[in-house]
Amino acid sequence: MVGLLGLVLIASKKQTDIIKENFEIRVLLVDTAKAEDGERLQKFWTNVQGVKDVQFIDKSIAAKSFEKEIGQEFTKILDINPIPHALIIRLNAGFSEQINLADFETELKKESLVENVDYQTDLLANINKNVKLLVMILTAVSFLFALISIALINSTIRLSLFARRFIIKSMQYVGATDWFIMKPFIKQFLFYGFFSAIIAIACLGAIYFGLQNTSLGIAVDIEELINIKVFAAVSLILLGLGTFLVLFSTIFAVKRYLRLQNDQLN
Protein backbone atom coordinates (compact mmCIF):
# COMPACT_ATOMS: atom_id res chain seq x y z
CA MET A 1 0.00 0.00 0.00
CA VAL A 2 2.86 2.37 0.82
CA GLY A 3 4.44 1.65 -2.57
CA LEU A 4 1.13 2.19 -4.37
CA LEU A 5 0.58 5.52 -2.62
CA GLY A 6 4.15 6.50 -3.53
CA LEU A 7 3.46 5.78 -7.21
CA VAL A 8 0.18 7.74 -7.04
CA LEU A 9 2.05 10.68 -5.48
CA ILE A 10 4.71 10.63 -8.22
CA ALA A 11 2.07 10.29 -10.96
CA SER A 12 0.07 13.21 -9.51
CA LYS A 13 3.16 15.41 -9.44
CA LYS A 14 4.04 14.48 -13.03
CA GLN A 15 0.49 15.11 -14.26
CA THR A 16 0.47 18.49 -12.52
CA ASP A 17 3.76 19.43 -14.19
CA ILE A 18 2.26 18.55 -17.58
CA ILE A 19 -0.77 20.78 -16.88
CA LYS A 20 1.46 23.64 -15.71
CA GLU A 21 3.69 23.41 -18.78
CA ASN A 22 0.61 23.58 -21.02
CA PHE A 23 -0.61 26.74 -19.30
CA GLU A 24 -0.63 29.46 -21.95
CA ILE A 25 0.07 33.17 -21.67
CA ARG A 26 -1.17 34.82 -24.88
CA VAL A 27 0.60 38.05 -25.84
CA LEU A 28 -1.14 40.21 -28.46
CA LEU A 29 0.98 42.72 -30.38
CA VAL A 30 -0.02 46.17 -31.60
CA ASP A 31 -1.48 46.58 -35.10
CA THR A 32 1.68 48.26 -36.38
CA ALA A 33 3.88 45.29 -35.36
CA LYS A 34 5.43 43.31 -38.22
CA ALA A 35 6.10 39.58 -38.46
CA GLU A 36 9.81 40.30 -38.00
CA ASP A 37 9.02 42.00 -34.68
CA GLY A 38 7.09 38.96 -33.51
CA GLU A 39 9.95 36.61 -34.46
CA ARG A 40 12.43 38.86 -32.65
CA LEU A 41 10.33 38.83 -29.48
CA GLN A 42 9.95 35.07 -29.81
CA LYS A 43 13.75 34.60 -29.79
CA PHE A 44 14.18 37.07 -26.93
CA TRP A 45 11.51 35.60 -24.64
CA THR A 46 12.61 32.04 -25.37
CA ASN A 47 15.86 32.83 -23.55
CA VAL A 48 14.13 34.31 -20.50
CA GLN A 49 14.60 32.25 -17.33
CA GLY A 50 11.72 29.87 -16.62
CA VAL A 51 10.21 30.03 -20.11
CA LYS A 52 9.71 26.58 -21.66
CA ASP A 53 8.84 27.70 -25.18
CA VAL A 54 7.40 30.61 -27.15
CA GLN A 55 5.19 30.14 -30.21
CA PHE A 56 4.75 32.97 -32.71
CA ILE A 57 1.40 33.08 -34.54
CA ASP A 58 1.45 35.19 -37.70
CA LYS A 59 -1.71 37.26 -38.18
CA SER A 60 -2.22 36.04 -41.77
CA ILE A 61 -2.04 32.38 -40.70
CA ALA A 62 -4.38 33.08 -37.78
CA ALA A 63 -6.85 34.78 -40.16
CA LYS A 64 -6.87 31.83 -42.59
CA SER A 65 -7.42 29.42 -39.68
CA PHE A 66 -10.31 31.52 -38.37
CA GLU A 67 -11.86 31.78 -41.88
CA LYS A 68 -11.75 28.00 -42.15
CA GLU A 69 -13.56 27.70 -38.82
CA ILE A 70 -16.39 30.12 -39.64
CA GLY A 71 -16.57 29.24 -43.34
CA GLN A 72 -16.31 32.88 -44.52
CA GLU A 73 -13.48 35.02 -45.86
CA PHE A 74 -14.02 37.92 -43.47
CA THR A 75 -10.78 39.65 -44.52
CA LYS A 76 -12.24 40.25 -47.99
CA ILE A 77 -15.46 41.58 -46.50
CA LEU A 78 -13.69 43.92 -44.08
CA ASP A 79 -10.83 44.61 -46.49
CA ILE A 80 -8.46 44.39 -43.50
CA ASN A 81 -7.16 41.71 -41.17
CA PRO A 82 -8.21 42.70 -37.60
CA ILE A 83 -6.37 39.79 -35.99
CA PRO A 84 -3.01 40.91 -34.51
CA HIS A 85 0.25 39.01 -34.41
CA ALA A 86 0.41 36.94 -31.24
CA LEU A 87 2.84 34.95 -29.16
CA ILE A 88 1.99 32.07 -26.83
CA ILE A 89 4.35 31.65 -23.88
CA ARG A 90 4.54 28.44 -21.83
CA LEU A 91 6.48 28.26 -18.58
CA ASN A 92 8.51 25.48 -16.96
CA ALA A 93 6.57 23.64 -14.25
CA GLY A 94 9.07 24.48 -11.49
CA PHE A 95 9.24 28.16 -12.45
CA SER A 96 5.45 28.53 -12.57
CA GLU A 97 5.30 27.77 -8.82
CA GLN A 98 7.68 30.61 -7.97
CA ILE A 99 6.57 33.54 -10.11
CA ASN A 100 3.78 36.03 -9.64
CA LEU A 101 1.91 36.12 -12.94
CA ALA A 102 0.90 39.76 -12.41
CA ASP A 103 4.59 40.73 -12.15
CA PHE A 104 5.41 38.59 -15.19
CA GLU A 105 2.59 40.32 -17.12
CA THR A 106 4.02 43.73 -16.13
CA GLU A 107 7.44 42.71 -17.45
CA LEU A 108 5.92 41.61 -20.76
CA LYS A 109 4.00 44.89 -21.13
CA LYS A 110 7.22 46.88 -20.80
CA GLU A 111 7.79 45.95 -24.44
CA SER A 112 6.27 48.76 -26.52
CA LEU A 113 4.98 46.36 -29.17
CA VAL A 114 2.78 44.49 -26.69
CA GLU A 115 -0.90 45.50 -26.82
CA ASN A 116 -2.37 43.04 -24.34
CA VAL A 117 -1.48 39.97 -22.23
CA ASP A 118 -4.20 37.39 -21.74
CA TYR A 119 -4.29 34.30 -19.49
CA GLN A 120 -6.61 32.53 -17.06
CA THR A 121 -5.95 34.60 -13.98
CA ASP A 122 -6.56 32.16 -11.12
CA LEU A 123 -5.89 28.86 -12.91
CA LEU A 124 -2.20 28.51 -12.05
CA ALA A 125 -2.74 29.63 -8.44
CA ASN A 126 -5.56 27.09 -8.03
CA ILE A 127 -3.41 24.33 -9.53
CA ASN A 128 -0.55 25.06 -7.10
CA LYS A 129 -2.96 25.24 -4.15
CA ASN A 130 -4.69 21.96 -5.01
CA VAL A 131 -1.39 20.17 -5.65
CA LYS A 132 -0.01 21.20 -2.25
CA LEU A 133 -3.20 19.95 -0.59
CA LEU A 134 -3.04 16.65 -2.51
CA VAL A 135 0.64 16.15 -1.63
CA MET A 136 -0.09 16.80 2.05
CA ILE A 137 -2.97 14.29 2.09
CA LEU A 138 -1.06 11.56 0.24
CA THR A 139 2.04 12.12 2.39
CA ALA A 140 -0.02 11.89 5.58
CA VAL A 141 -1.78 8.70 4.41
CA SER A 142 1.55 7.18 3.28
CA PHE A 143 3.10 8.02 6.65
CA LEU A 144 0.13 6.41 8.44
CA PHE A 145 0.41 3.21 6.42
CA ALA A 146 4.18 3.21 6.95
CA LEU A 147 3.66 3.37 10.74
CA ILE A 148 1.11 0.54 10.55
CA SER A 149 3.56 -1.54 8.48
CA ILE A 150 6.39 -0.91 10.96
CA ALA A 151 4.13 -1.85 13.88
CA LEU A 152 2.98 -5.07 12.17
CA ILE A 153 6.52 -6.12 11.24
CA ASN A 154 7.83 -5.38 14.71
CA SER A 155 4.92 -7.16 16.45
CA THR A 156 5.23 -10.25 14.22
CA ILE A 157 8.95 -10.58 14.92
CA ARG A 158 8.52 -9.99 18.66
CA LEU A 159 5.75 -12.61 18.90
CA SER A 160 7.85 -15.14 17.02
CA LEU A 161 10.87 -14.53 19.24
CA PHE A 162 8.71 -14.56 22.38
CA ALA A 163 7.90 -18.22 21.69
CA ARG A 164 11.65 -18.93 21.50
CA ARG A 165 12.83 -16.71 24.33
CA PHE A 166 13.99 -19.66 26.45
CA ILE A 167 16.09 -20.99 23.56
CA ILE A 168 17.71 -17.54 23.21
CA LYS A 169 18.49 -17.45 26.93
CA SER A 170 19.82 -21.04 26.95
CA MET A 171 22.22 -20.23 24.10
CA GLN A 172 23.45 -17.22 26.06
CA TYR A 173 24.10 -19.35 29.16
CA VAL A 174 26.26 -21.86 27.26
CA GLY A 175 28.53 -19.02 26.12
CA ALA A 176 27.17 -18.12 22.67
CA THR A 177 27.92 -14.57 21.58
CA ASP A 178 25.14 -12.12 20.84
CA TRP A 179 25.92 -12.21 17.12
CA PHE A 180 25.92 -16.03 17.06
CA ILE A 181 22.46 -16.03 18.69
CA MET A 182 21.05 -13.32 16.43
CA LYS A 183 22.43 -14.65 13.13
CA PRO A 184 19.91 -17.50 12.50
CA PHE A 185 16.97 -15.24 13.42
CA ILE A 186 18.25 -12.47 11.17
CA LYS A 187 18.62 -14.90 8.27
CA GLN A 188 15.13 -16.29 8.82
CA PHE A 189 13.34 -12.96 9.09
CA LEU A 190 15.36 -11.38 6.28
CA PHE A 191 14.18 -14.22 4.05
CA TYR A 192 10.56 -13.59 5.10
CA GLY A 193 11.01 -9.84 4.60
CA PHE A 194 12.61 -10.28 1.17
CA PHE A 195 9.91 -12.70 0.07
CA SER A 196 7.16 -10.33 1.30
CA ALA A 197 8.79 -7.39 -0.53
CA ILE A 198 8.95 -9.43 -3.75
CA ILE A 199 5.22 -10.23 -3.43
CA ALA A 200 4.45 -6.52 -2.84
CA ILE A 201 6.57 -5.49 -5.86
CA ALA A 202 4.86 -8.17 -7.98
CA CYS A 203 1.45 -6.78 -6.99
CA LEU A 204 2.60 -3.24 -7.84
CA GLY A 205 3.95 -4.52 -11.15
CA ALA A 206 0.62 -6.20 -11.96
CA ILE A 207 -1.21 -2.92 -11.29
CA TYR A 208 1.38 -0.85 -13.21
CA PHE A 209 1.53 -3.03 -16.34
CA GLY A 210 -2.21 -3.70 -16.14
CA LEU A 211 -2.94 0.04 -16.30
CA GLN A 212 -0.65 0.37 -19.31
CA ASN A 213 -2.70 -2.18 -21.21
CA THR A 214 -6.11 -0.93 -20.05
CA SER A 215 -8.05 1.98 -21.50
CA LEU A 216 -9.16 4.21 -18.63
CA GLY A 217 -10.83 6.82 -20.77
CA ILE A 218 -8.11 9.39 -20.11
CA ALA A 219 -5.81 11.11 -22.54
CA VAL A 220 -2.63 10.66 -20.50
CA ASP A 221 -0.49 7.56 -20.98
CA ILE A 222 0.36 5.86 -17.66
CA GLU A 223 3.93 5.29 -18.87
CA GLU A 224 4.27 9.04 -19.42
CA LEU A 225 3.50 9.64 -15.74
CA ILE A 226 5.46 6.71 -14.28
CA ASN A 227 8.18 5.26 -16.47
CA ILE A 228 9.90 1.95 -15.81
CA LYS A 229 12.88 3.67 -14.12
CA VAL A 230 10.61 5.34 -11.56
CA PHE A 231 8.82 2.04 -10.94
CA ALA A 232 12.17 0.27 -10.47
CA ALA A 233 13.34 2.98 -8.05
CA VAL A 234 10.16 2.69 -5.94
CA SER A 235 10.56 -1.11 -5.93
CA LEU A 236 14.16 -0.88 -4.74
CA ILE A 237 13.18 1.59 -2.01
CA LEU A 238 10.45 -0.82 -0.83
CA LEU A 239 12.93 -3.68 -0.82
CA GLY A 240 15.56 -1.63 1.02
CA LEU A 241 13.13 -0.28 3.63
CA GLY A 242 11.64 -3.72 4.24
CA THR A 243 15.09 -5.25 4.72
CA PHE A 244 16.17 -2.48 7.10
CA LEU A 245 12.98 -2.71 9.20
CA VAL A 246 13.26 -6.48 9.53
CA LEU A 247 16.95 -6.28 10.44
CA PHE A 248 16.41 -3.52 13.00
CA SER A 249 13.35 -5.18 14.59
CA THR A 250 15.08 -8.57 14.83
CA ILE A 251 18.23 -7.19 16.45
CA PHE A 252 16.20 -5.04 18.84
CA ALA A 253 13.91 -7.94 19.89
CA VAL A 254 16.76 -10.45 20.39
CA LYS A 255 18.78 -7.91 22.37
CA ARG A 256 15.76 -7.33 24.59
CA TYR A 257 15.53 -11.00 25.56
CA LEU A 258 19.28 -11.23 26.07
CA ARG A 259 19.09 -8.44 28.65
CA LEU A 260 16.25 -10.05 30.61
CA GLN A 261 16.83 -12.18 33.72
CA ASN A 262 15.33 -15.67 34.04
CA ASP A 263 12.51 -14.54 36.29
CA GLN A 264 11.55 -11.86 33.75
CA LEU A 265 11.05 -14.29 30.86
CA ASN A 266 7.67 -15.55 32.09
What's the quick description here?
The protein is of the alpha+beta class. The chain contains 11 helices and 4 strands; from the N terminus they run αβαβααβααβααααα.
Features:
single chain; 266 residues; alpha+beta; Alpha-Beta Plaits; 2 domains; four-stranded antiparallel β-sheet
Could you explain the architecture of this structure?
This protein has 266 residues and is an alpha+beta fold. The chain folds into two domains: 24-119, Alpha-Beta Plaits (2-Layer Sandwich); 126-264, no CATH class. It has eleven helices and four strands. The protein has helices at residues 2-21, 35-46, 59-70, 74-78, 93-96, 101-109, 123-162, 165-173, 178-212, 222-225, 228-259; strands at residues 24-29, 51-57, 86-91, 114-118. It has a four-stranded antiparallel β-sheet. Helix 1 runs antiparallel to helix 11.
The count of strands amounts to: 4
Unreliable runs: none
Approximately what portion of the residues adopt beta-strand conformation? 5-15%
- The oligomeric state is single chain
Straight-line distance between termini: 36 Å
Overall shape: it is rod-shaped
The helix content is: 55-70%
Strand order of the largest sheet: 2-3-1-4
- Tell me the count of domains: 2
Structural class by secondary-structure content? alpha+beta
